[in-house]
Design goal:
This protein has 309 residues and is α/β, with parallel strands linked by helices. The chain contains twelve helices and ten strands. It folds into two domains: 190 residues, Periplasmic binding protein-like II (D-Maltodextrin-Binding Protein, domain 2), CATH 3.40.190; 108 residues, D-Maltodextrin-Binding Protein, domain 2 (3-Layer(aba) Sandwich), CATH 3.40.190. 42% of the residues lie in helices and 20% in strands. The strands form two sheets. It has a five-stranded mixed beta sheet with strand order 2-1-3-10-4, sandwiched between helices. A five-stranded mixed beta sheet has the order 7-6-8-5-9.
Amino acid sequence: MTSLTTLKVAYIPEHFSTPLFFAEKQGYYTEHGLAIEFVKVPEGSGRLIYLLNQGEVDIAIGLTEAFIADIAKGNDKIKLLDTYVKSPLLWAVSTGINRDQITSLESLSQHGKIGISRIGSGSYVMSFVLAHKLGMDKFDEFAICSNFKNLRDSVNESPQREKDIETSDAFMWEYFTSKKYYDSREIKQIGEIYTPWPSWVITASTKSVDAKGKQIGDFIAAVNQGIAYFNNHIDEAVQYIDANLDYSAEDAREWTKTVQFNEQVGKQPLDWQKIVVNTKQVLQQAGVLTDSDDVIDARLNQHAYKSNI
């Protein structure tokens, strides 16, 4: 009997992970000779990057802007392999339910301490994009809160809030993940902003690509099968999300109407213009990237795949 190769895969436990687990349930990883050890990362993309940098996982699926920004800043320990979700991400901007002085995005120009999961995470990178939209250079203050629950606590003056969690005025998180807490009146929405790029990518550590390139390619092929299964079994996807993740069936179904997974994972070259060039340009405009074009492009050319792995 042929032994399976183990890959450690870090993921964010949100609805977007559903095709990954459909691939497992349908046996697609095993068909490719793989045993997948999933590592749940509720903290967000900044934590995914840390795990890749430390060699604790082989692969991570996270937000496009966080990985493009980190590679463009000089991180040579990760490689961007392919698009996972083609549709943009809708970030909801939220504050505490009783924060009466904060009623709109424009309020943040006066009350502007932004809660983020980690420096370098998607919530951090998108704060620069939001600032640019509001006509600001950047937000000057951040509260580093690690995860979604702490972010919600940070905008509420609640006796249940952990003492070491900094207060913040607002934070950004994916809309459907936030909606449950609007419905329960824990937080309120004051605005929203879309990413100007396809929202999720598959990445790997540079060392793992060198040592396990074929197996990583097989993983991508299995994910593509999982996406195809998801697209053909929407009712099952809604049931899975309702049963296993923090969403109602109603919200899960509404989300399935908005999301577009990449149906050609591993079958076509990375969409360089949409994923790399467009994201880089917006990050430069927002002030996230400050090095010269030549330096940034050299880093991206080395660590983002233009052809199939």
